[in-house]
Amino acid sequence: MTKGSINVSVENIFPLIKKFLYSDHEIFLRELISNATDATLKLKHLTNIGDAKVDYGNPQIEIKIDKDNKKLHIIDQGLGMTAEEVEKYINQVAFSGAEEFLDKYKDAAKDSGIIGHFGLGFYSAFMVAEKVEIITKSYKDAPAAHWTCDGSPEFTLEAHDKAERGTEIILHIAEDSTEFLEEPRIRELLNKYNKFMPIPIKFGTKEINDPEHEPKTTKDEEGKETTEPHRQITVDDIINNPNPAWTKQPADLKDEDYSGFYRELYPMQFEEPLFNIHLNVDYPFNLTGILYFPKMSNDMQIQKDKIQLYQNQVFVTDNVEGIVPEFLTMLRGVIDSPDIPLNVSRSYLQADGAVKKISSYITRKVADKLKSLFNNNREDFEAKWNDIKIVIEYGMLSEEKFFEKADAFALYPTVDGKYYTYQELYDKIKANQTDKDGKLVILYASDKDAQHSYIEAAKGKDYEVLLLDSPIISHLIQKLESTKENITFARVDGDHINNLIKKEENTISKLDEDQTKALDELLKEVISSEKFMVQLEAMDSEASPFIITQPEFMRRMKEMQQTGGGGMFGMGGMPEMYNLVVNTNSDLVGEILSTKTKKKQERLINQSLDLARLSQGLLKGEELTNFIKRSYEMIK
Predict the structure, then answer these.
(1) 411, 382 Cβ separation under 8 angstroms
(2) pTM (two decimals)
(3) How does pLDDT run across 574-615, given as a tens digit for each residue?
(4) Which residues contact 21 (CB under 8 A, 6 or more apart)?
């Protein structure tokens, strides 16, 4: 038997490991199973190239709980180690960087990004165990070895009678970590971190119907049928899928395979995804994965963190910001890349050059897929637009390269259910929707019901009205106006539309100069100048007598403020200000002007103003109550 001290240059290394190695101690199981997987895959490689003269067979990794003796076993059938290799890999190499580790990370306990740099994965066992044993036999013709360490730098290494190839790690679970002796807790961790490991993982057994025994049906004397029960057999409970869909070639998968894998990832998600994107690249970096577009709602935050990041089928995180472009964090699926370190902090990832290339590649791949879907089946793409637009619009805002590519597939729907690309829209309205400055005015509604009267008025002039109702549309409009030449967006109930209508109509007012002046003075006496800017316009006599619009700039800045963009413009606490457009050709306006008593004039003006406010949803509380009361009195 050999005795000795682990080559450690820092005193009390084990308490420091327990404190600093990972902020979340549960990670130990992932590390140990990853090591077991590596040992198994290395053996597979050696047998394939002829360097290992052994039968590879069908190895698996087994996890066993011995609750009575407070032990947790991780058993593999991989390479195994000789006593010399235990000395080399366990006692020396692991701690070669321990001092650097402590100097660099002792003040960053919450940063779980350190183990992989120093070969400390095995020693994560000491975060939950007071003693650790290794019983291992190499695939080479050498005796088995038994290594024991009780959490101090001292260890023992002696021969063992283990006959089968492979390694067994035995953790003597510490008193403060007994949760890891509970079957549900271990199953939870295996499902979280090892669900798609490439080697089958056994955790206990389960009863299934014997596939080789078909229950027989018999009839009694009265002809009543009786079927015997299924014969049950006990089999290994393999908790993982070693060959998940993303590890296969797209040509080998059908639609039902992608749907099945989606349900495997999200068993509680009952809605089918709209479509998927299979990622598969081996240069200039390795990356595989499948991304799914689910149906999107307008709440962007609630849909984030559904993509799972793997390294060689080992789960790393479901917080993929910095690896996946932010606008795509609302998608679902899996990304797997050996080029992404297994144990690093998010800040490290965001600064890593390879990770930035991966992010750019994913952006390009998604844009190409969307363009392909649009070109191959535009009708289907239009049908899905409302469910995917929030991701595309967010991408156009946040990623310049995606914005450029999106011109080919981003859609602009109208209130009538038609869909245009930007170029199609431009060609459609360029002859009919310009303002007095020669700018193309793109009219849009954000709420078909609330803005119905304005939509109908615009459609009456043969104007095309878009329906743009996502929560970030004000930001996107701002970007489009800054990148597209000579265009402006105007909400259909905004002030800009009046310039457009006036330019088209060039209608002569029924009122002469004196009447117009008298009307202007009367309105200013009755209507608060703090809330409304009164404008007299000669419009069609059938148009509404009073129309409330909001200055496009003011309204847009308020919307951007509400969605997180207004603060940078210094627009906090912007006042409510509206335009009141009074149609001088309206019969009602003429009646207001000709009414003899001041009281009746004021009553007609207030009633007309409140009707306009009601149509904009601006009449509430006491003012609404007074309006209803006044309306009943006028009917009487």
Answers:
(1) yes
(2) 0.74
(3) 566 788 888 888 888 888 888 888 888 888 888 888 888 887
(4) 114, 115, 120, 123, 124, 127
